[in-house]
Design goal:
Strand order of the largest sheet: 6-9-8-10-12
Radius of gyration: 18 Å
Mean pLDDT: 89
CATH topology of the largest domain: Molybdenum Cofactor Biosythetic Enzyme, Chain A
CATH architecture of the largest domain: 3-Layer(aba) Sandwich
Largest sheet: 5 strands, mixed, barrel
Strand content: 25-35%
CATH superfamily of the largest domain: MoaB/Mog-like domain
Distance between the termini: 36 Å
Order of helices and strands: HEHEEEEHEEEEHEEEE
Length: 207
C-alpha cells in the first residue's frame, strides 16, 4: 500500500525531514530526482546522514545511471533519477523486483524475452543500454523495433513502448534480424500485424 506521496523543493533540511519520516513509517521508500551530482542533488547525502547504508550508488545502465539502493534497519530506500524515462527504467528494473521480493513472490525479475530486432541498436561502452521499443507478434515470432526518440527527459516514448530492448556494454551494432533481449513492461501494448502501421527502419545511433 502506498502510504504517502510528497513533493519536496531543493532544500536540504526539508528533504532530510521528509526522508526521516518516510523511513520511520515505511517498508520501502522511493524517491525520484536529486540523485545526480549537482549542487542541489541532496538525496543520497541526506539519506546517508540519516543512517542509510547504500548497497550501490550508481548502476551501469543507460538511462538509469544515478539509481541507488540502500537500507536503514529493515526499511529499504530506492533513489531514482529525475529524468522521466530514466526513472521509468529504474522503476521497472530495480524497484519492481524489490517490491515483488518484499511481497514474497517466487519470481521477482521482469519478463525477459529473446526477440528479433527490426531497425538498429548501438551498444554503449561501459553500460547496458535499455532502448524503448514496440513489440510485434508475427507468424515468425516476436519482433522488436526501437522507438525513434530515446531522450531520457521525455515521457511519450516510455508511454508508447511495450518494453525495452536491453543490450550489453560494448561498441557493437545490432542490425535487422539480430536476436536481442526484450524486457516486457506492458503486455497490452503487444501489437499484431493487423493492428499497427508498417514497420520502418529506425536507428538509435543518436540516443
Amino acid at each position: 500500500m502506498v502510504r504517502e506521496v510528497v513533493t519536496i523543493a531543493d532544500d536540504r533540511a526539508r528533504l532530510t525531514d521528509a526522508l526521516e519520516r518516510a523511513l520511520d513509517a515505511s517498508d520501502l521508500v522511493v524517491t525520484t530526482g536529486g540523485a545526480s551530482m549537482g549542487e542541489r542533488d541532496y538525496v543520497k547525502a541526506a539519506a546517508a546522514a540519516l543512517g542509510v547504508t547504500f548497497a550501490f550508488e550508481r548502476v551501469a545502465l543507460r538511462p538509469a545511471k544515478p539509481t541507488a539502493f540502500g537500507k536503514r534497519g529493515a526499511t529499504a530506500l530506492a533513489v531514482l533519477p529525475g529524468n522521466p524515462a530514466a526513472a521509468f527504467v529504474a522503476l521497472h528494473e530495480f524497484v519492481g523486483p524489490a517490491v515483488r521480493a518484499l511481497c514474497g513472490c517466487a519470481e521477482v525479475l521482469p519478463p525477459r524475452l529473446g526477440v528479433t530486432l527490426k531497425g538498429s541498436i548501438h551498444s554503449k561502452p561501459g553500460r547496458h543500454f535499455a532502448a524503448f521499443a514496440e513489440l510485434l507478434a508475427t507468424d515468425k515470432g516476436l519482433v522488436a523495433r526501437p522507438l525513434g526518440n530515446q531522450c531520457s527527459s521525455l515521457t511519450r516514448t516510455a508511454a508508447e513502448a511495450c518494453g525495452f530492448i536491453v543490450v550489453p556494454p560494448g561498441a557493437a551494432t545490432y542490425e535487422d534480424g539480430a536476436r536481442v533481449d526484450f524486457d516486457v513492461v506492458d503486455w497490452t501494448k503487444l501489437q499484431t500485424a493487423a493492428s499497427r502501421r508498417p514497420l520502418e527502419m529506425v536507428s538509435s545511433r543518436d540516443t
